[in-house]
Write a structure and sequence with these properties.
Helix content is about 35%, strand content about 15%. It has one domain (about 10-185, about 230-285, about 320-350): Malate/L-lactate/L-sulpholactate dehydrogenase, NADPH binding domain (Ribosomal Protein S8, Chain: A, domain 1, 2-Layer Sandwich), CATH 3.30.1370.60. It has about 350 residues and is an alpha+beta fold. The strands form 3 sheets. A 7-stranded mixed β-sheet has the order 2-3-4-11-5-6-7, with helices on both faces. The termini are close together. Strand 6 and strand 7 form a beta hairpin. It contains 10 helices and 12 strands.
């Protein structure tokens, strides 16, 4: 199936199988390949196309160049009742964060709240994947990370010492979709810039500026400028704090120590992430909380709108809708991305990605 722009739709199961096969070919154990493939396909399923299969060639380059450990010993380096630091041993970030999140969930069952940070990790896809995991256990998830390349200078500066440093929060609801906020501390995540470049689309004004302070609209020239923080100096401050919590606190890279994994395929990135999990049961009956969330969601959605506004959206609501839609119709893949994947499959001797 394709539209007038030659966009192709693929089934989520076929996409997951293709990704897993590529990772197995690169030497990742089958179980680990399946875990990473499932999370990457889920990223595309929810519309986070800057963090899904578009990243596969880049991940494979790092695996093949020895920049990521194929057989990591992911382990708890230090812990107390309500915290832990996970050493990822330079494994795939999806594996490290899945493990860290499961540790946080189990600790929160006992302590009511748990903070688990990582070091020696890698890029792990969209933040919301991990903020959503505790929701299934009647828990709230808050995720923080240091980005894998610096694209943001300090406010008023020129040297890019900070990254997009994302935040995600997942809050359970009852009959309504969970409230899931996933945001970079920059106006746009760099993955969205990469996705624009692959689709041959310009960036909106306000995403990036060049080194003369002029708007930068061509995503293929992104290395000539830098991303802008949300809310001006407030976004810069937020990016700094997230980096200190997700990176510095766990002994992970921050500032000049951050490795640009877009350019460097061999140096370990020592990526830092953190997940804070809150068990609703520690505060009362989970169903009471979720019903209260439902009421607030309904109040917001049905509140008075400005002229011309058709609907007020809640955080995560559009991603929820995409998951339902793409599960039925397939996931859209841009022609440039598909071409790169086909070329990669040919070189690796793999069957191409199945189209609808």
């Amino acid at each position: 199936m394709a539209d007038n722009n030659n966009t192709v739709w693929v089934d989520v199961a076929d996409l997951q199988a293709f990704i897993a096969a590529a990772f197995v070919h690169a030497g990742l154990p089958a179980a680990d390949a399946g875990t990473v493939a499932r999370l990457m396909a889920q990223a595309d399923l929810q519309g986070s196309d800057g963090h899904g299969v578009i990243r596969l060639p880049q991940y494979l380059k790092r695996l093949q160049a020895g920049g990521i450990n194929l057989h990591p010993n992911i382990r708890i380096a230090t812990e107390r009742a309500a915290m832990a630091v996970v050493d990822g041993d330079n494994g795939m970030g999806h594996l490290v964060m899945s493990y860290a999140t499961s540790v946080a969930i189990e600790k929160a069952r006992t302590a009511g709240v748990a903070w688990v940070g990582t070091r020696a990790s890698n890029h792990a896809g969209p933040a919301s994947l991990y903020a959503r995991m505790p929701i299934e256990h009647d828990m709230i998830g808050l995720y923080f990370a240091v980005g894998n390349a610096n694209h943001l200078p300090p406010w008023g500066g020129m040297e890019m010492l900070l990254s997009t440093n994302p935040i995600a929060v997942g809050i359970p609801a009852g009959s309504e979709p969970a409230v899931v906020l996933d945001m970079a501390t920059t106006v746009a995540a760099y993955g969205k810039v990469k996705a624009k470049a692959k689709r041959g689309e310009p960036m909106p004004e306000g995403w990036m500026i060049d080194r003369q302070g002029q708007p930068l609209l061509d995503p293929t020239r992104a290395n000539e400028g830098f991303l802008l923080p949300i809310g001006g100096h407030k976004g810069y401050g937020l990016a700094l704090i997230v980096g200190l919590l997700a990176g510095t606190l766990q002994g992970a890279a921050m500032g000049r120590d951050v490795v640009d994994f877009n350019q460097d395929h061999t140096t370990p990135t020592n990526t830092g992430q953190a997940i804070l999990v809150i068990d609703l049961k520690a505060f009362g009956e989970p169903e009471d909380f979720k019903h209260a969330v439902d009421r607030l969601v309904c109040d917001i959605r049905t509140s008075e709108r400005l002229p011309g506004v058709e609907r007020i959206w809640l955080p995560g609501e559009q991603s929820h809708g995409r998951r339902d839609e793409y599960a039925r119709t397939g996931i859209p893949i841009a022609p440039a991305v598909l071409g790169e994947l086909d070329q990669m499959a040919t070189q690796m001797g793999l069957a191409p990605l199945v189209r609808h």
